[in-house]
Request: fold
Amino acid sequence: MTIATHAASAPGEPAAGAASSRSGGSGAAVGREGGRAQGVDARDASRVARPPLWLVVLASLAALAASIPLVYLVVRGGESGLDRIVETLSRGRVLEYAANSLGLAAATTATALVLGTAVAFTLSRLRVPFPRLWLLASALPLAVPSFLAGYGWLVLAPGIDGFVPSWLLLSAVTMPYVALPVAAALRGASGDLEGVARTLGRGPFPAFLVATWPQVRPAAIAGGLLVALYALSDFGLVAMMRFPTLTWGINAAYSASFDRAQAAILALLLVVLALLVVLGERTARGRVPRAAARAVAPRTIGRGMLLSLLPVVAAAPVVGVAIPLLGLATRLVQAETLRELDVPRLLAAVGSTVGVALAAAALAVVLALPIAALAARFRGRLVSAIESVGFLGHALPGIVVGLSLVFFSLAVLPALYQSVVVLVFAYAVLFMPKAIGTMRSGLADVPVSLVAVARTLGDSPLRAWWRVTVPLALPSVGIGALLVAIATMKELPATLLLRPTGIQTLATELWNRTVVFEFGAAAPYAAVLVLIAAVPAMVLSGIRSTAKEEL
Reply:
């Protein structure tokens, strides 16, 4: 899922007077400003022009495909009737599930917001040793699925369960969703107002709250949205910690009864909660007007304060990565683990994981490309509606998508039930927003003037697009595909519901062994999953620094 940050304009842009003095006169400066204004007007004109019909049709078809799980789930739930829905939702157990889900999401989001903002401020505004290394360490929890972190902790402390460990581990693995975009926003935020606040007698923290926090609030709240949706949709960790939430109830209702109506109703309740979170985020985020920013040099602080802040930065990597990997390592080196290792089964799981990840990445890119191209170049209510539907995967938990596609395939396409096709489609729906976000940014950065020049040289629209737009936007397409592949490798609940019989991924093999407390047999699958997911994550960090913010 992509985090949209409102970065300020580039620091150090020369004022008009300075430009005039360097160019030898005000006329040159006015000419440049006029050219810049014409360029902006040209770009705006391209964005308000009428989009071609073929692009609207392709984008609409992609959005329609993304909406299939939710639409069918609504139809399925409506078939139960109002009385059945009210009766199901009024059960004490269901209310407990909903309260647990909301409480866990609220606690996790608040913790991630506070901790992530503190980490971002420490790494962006204070002079710390090896800042790039600390930033990389703060992003490491993104490569560790929550259920794998839970596995590592259960190896070392088998008796832990309930709300507290679920809250702490979810906060650790989701903290980077806040820290990375806030750090990026701080790098682009103006330091002028904060300096004025300091001269008026405010301390560092009050000055930050008054002057800088409003500039980075949209990034922080957007990251908080991802954290809240992650906590609402998590299944593997809460199941390992035996903390009953809505995802637990949905899985139990689906698995234990031939009457799947209750599972559909609970899934709709979870979707409603997720949509309310999305609407709340849009209301709270607000907008910050773009203005010229003056870069803020990191401040040097005393060694005592530095030693007190670094544990804050290290908290999430230690809790979410180091300790789980330590538990994993203790199991890997045991002789009984090596004796129980089934190499052919492990290799088969690796092949299945990589295969479905590549297929999901390709399908997500195909579905996301027309939506991204439409949103990058054009405006309007229709464009906004299509883009919003494409981002529907933000608010659809994996277990909801999996359950709805089970219903859909059985009722409409029974030949595809429990097939790889449905599984890959579920991944594409869930993670298409990651591809849309990165591809939209890449396509929007391609100057319209370059395409116009290619057209004036005799190229057709398609040839001009292939020669100009594709080479410049290709890196963003690759980033989107890698983001989808990483998310697919770590996905668990939809995979448990939709995987074909006889096919296991590394995530499902790890889950199957952990739920029966075979921690030694699960260790090799956990280790290989970490290694495989780390490869595209390392590629992303080398391609573009903001890739980690979108992971």
About this structure: The CA atoms of residues 459 and 534 lie 42 Å apart.
